[in-house]
Amino acid sequence: MDKLFIFDTTLRDGEQVPGCQLNTIEKIEIAKALEELGVDVIEAGFPVSSPGDFNSVVEISKAVTWPTICALTRAVEKDIEVAAEALKYAKKKRIHTGIGTSDYHIKYKFNSTQEEVLQRAIAATAYAKKFVEDVEFYAEDAGRTDNEYLAKVVQAVINAGATVVNIPDTTGYCLPTEYGAKIKYLVDNVDLKGAILSTHCHQDLGMATANSIMGVLNGARQVEVTINGVGERAGNTSLEEVVMAIKSHKELQIETNINTKKIYPLSRKVSSLMNMPVQPNKAIVGRNAFAHSSGIHQDGVLKNLSTYEIIDPKEVGIDDNAIVLTARSGRHALKNRLGLLGIEVEGEKLTELYEKFLELADHKKDINDDDLLILAGKEGNASNRIKLDYLQVTSGKGVRCTAVVALDIAGEKFTATSFGNGPVDAAIRAVKEIIKRQITIQEFLIQAINKGSDDFGKVHMQVEFNGINYYGFSANTDIISASVEAFINAMNKIPV
Ligand code: KIV
Ligand code: ZN
């Protein structure tokens, strides 16, 4: 069996999604869960980009023991110095440096030449090598880079000490055969001297997993992935898809270190902390990934699971017999279920959560894992200056929608009434009347998590104020309240 290294970039490339930013505590929580999952490398951030990113790399380095901690840089000395400083506490450390190698990048981004970019690549690798032994080089936009020039760059950085060379399909442009051929060309034309080639594929044409697998079949031995495939634009290659494809195809004779039973709980955790819903038909971790609804399929799986199921859901940590909590469940059952979801709570925090749980159970018959993750979820990085005190809406057929809203703003009470073309519109207009700021809603997404009319509605909102976007989130069984709370959550992020 050949080992395939799993390099997780949920906390770097994945976290670049607008509105999904995590604070350091949340990143540490995910990093520890990635360690338990068994990833080999955690890309923890881009330290020079912000003090927050720097701090996250420092804290993750302290919190995690086994995986290598990796920090991203540009081919710039200052970036490399800052990354090395941020990695100070990592038990195993890697600097990931690189530069764009396609003509698009060389000409339009750098106004440079192939020779100059080659020299910068060598210099950056050699400089990073002064700080750490393990240096990964990325040839940005390698997917659109001419193979002959790419091979020259890859050989040069390996000669300069790179231990891993990343071949990103930055724009998600490659076809699987093309990407596989690119990796093969490098294997055949570069003296790798023990260095590993890595895939890093984006999902713009929906081919990230196929491209990564083709890379592996042609000799790459590291894949760069994110949980749930999160990432900018259409996202990155998803960890769960590549890992389960490799595991399902034993004939490939390739193995990873991933404990696949931890995949589903971590998928839920990332979705919940990032406020990023997983599409129901998402492979491996989507709500419907193992739901057989047609009569023929149901009949088949009842006779024998292998008729229509290639993976036992338990293998990825989906427990069909998961206890559904109800209003009659006790504190112990709640604590136990949260523990299985990777959330350890004790004492006062448990009491507080149990009270929230009972309140929810009053409105909703069965409480499932998603509900619990929301209850236990993030407090958010917003202040609590503006609070929703009271909300009453009148709506229905033939009724003019009206809302009465009372807000508590830094301890002072304000009330307003407004009309609207629907209950949400009326309520948001009433809020705007009180706060008197020119805030416009740019995006507004309501999503039910499960099935049933008693479900939680999750609301994501993007608002714009003075040219800057702010993101709000809330979840409530009352979707009008959730919408107003999400709006208020976004407003609380606007500096006073
Ligand atoms: O997509 C990409 O090219 C990247 C690099 C910075 C590694 O994320
Ligand atoms: Zn990327």
Structure explained in plain terms:
With 496 residues, the protein is α/β, with parallel strands linked by helices. It folds into three domains: 2-273, TIM Barrel; 295-379, Orthogonal Bundle (Recoverin, domain 1), CATH 1.10.238; 386-491, Double Stranded RNA Binding Domain. Helices cover 38% and strands 21% of the residues. The protein has 16 helices and 16 strands. The chain has helices spanning 24-37, 51-63, 77-86, 103-109, 114-129, 147-159, 176-189, 208-217, 239-248, 263-274, 295-303, 331-340, 347-363, 369-375, 423-435, 479-491, and strands at 2-3, 5-8, 41-45, 68-72, 93-100, 134-140, 164-169, 196-201, 222-225, 254-255, 386-394, 401-409, 412-420, 440-448, 457-465, 468-476. An eight-stranded parallel beta barrel has the order 2-3-4-5-6-7-8-9, surrounded by eight helices. Helix 1 runs antiparallel to helix 10 and helix 15 packs parallel to helix 16 (479-491). The longest helix is centred in the C-terminal third of the chain and has 17 residues, at 347-363. The radius of gyration is 25 Å and the shape is globular. The N and C termini lie far apart (58 Å). 42% of the residues are buried. The mean pLDDT is 91. Bound molecules: 3-methyl-2-oxobutanoic acid and zinc ion (ZN). 3-methyl-2-oxobutanoic acid binds at residues 13, 138, 140, 166, 168, 170, 200, 202.
